[in-house]
Amino acid sequence: MTRLGWSILALIVLAAAGFASLLSFGRAPVVAPAPVASEPAAAATDGGRLLVPVAGIARDHLTDSWGQDRGGGARAHHAIDIMAPVGTPVRAAAAGRIEKLFDSRDGGLTIYQRSADGGTVYYYAHLSGYRRGLAEGQAVRAGEPIAAVGATGNADPGAPHLHFSIKRMQPGERWWQGQEVNPYPLLAGSRGLR
């Protein structure tokens, strides 16, 4: 083989190695959010109100984005987006159990958490990572850190946020089913979860 042939082969091998280093297999990355002072569970869900699931965000800084057009008007937004820097701790909005850890094209890294009574599913999307050790089936307390804000899935990389939605569940419904509920009034405190 000529010197040119060896040079071309070396470039091909380097390009392949560089591409291979971009691939990852297995579970999504785990991020340990910074410690967060948790509100007591009783205060977090007083009167059916939920805890704001992004650390450091006050109720009066939330914006109701329920029903806004998305995808150029192709669909309505059935959630609330809570803007925060990448890595900001995401905490459980209420007590319950981690039902599903999932990586999807649209939601990116996601968590589905079922309420303690089984009648509600809380959905956390566009996460940058899960809390170290978080697992499906694990019980969580209101205010407990579970993940970190990100911009995964179809989120704009320049606008990291938590996409948070709620579904009321009928007996036997799975984590992806249920009736969508506007989370804004429940987080802002204007009405309780019924």
TrEMBL record:
GO molecular function ontology, one term from the record: metal ion binding
Entry keyword Ubl conjugation: no
Record's keyword annotation contains Metal-binding: yes
Domain of life according to the entry: Bacteria
Cleaved signal peptide residues: none
Gene Ontology terms describing biological process: proteolysis
Residues of the M23ase beta-sheet core domain: 76-183
Stretches of the chain forming a coiled coil according to its record: none
Keywords on record: Hydrolase, Metal-binding, Metalloprotease, Protease, Zinc
InterPro entries noted in UniProt: Cell_wall_metabolism_enzyme, Dup_hybrid_motif, M23ase_b-sheet_dom
Swiss-Prot/TrEMBL cofactor(s): Zn(2+)
Database matches in PANTHER family: CELL DIVISION PROTEIN YTFB, PEPTIDASE-RELATED
Entry protein name: Peptidase M23
Species of origin: Sphingomonas ginsenosidimutans
Organism lineage: Bacteria, Pseudomonadati, Pseudomonadota, Alphaproteobacteria, Sphingomonadales
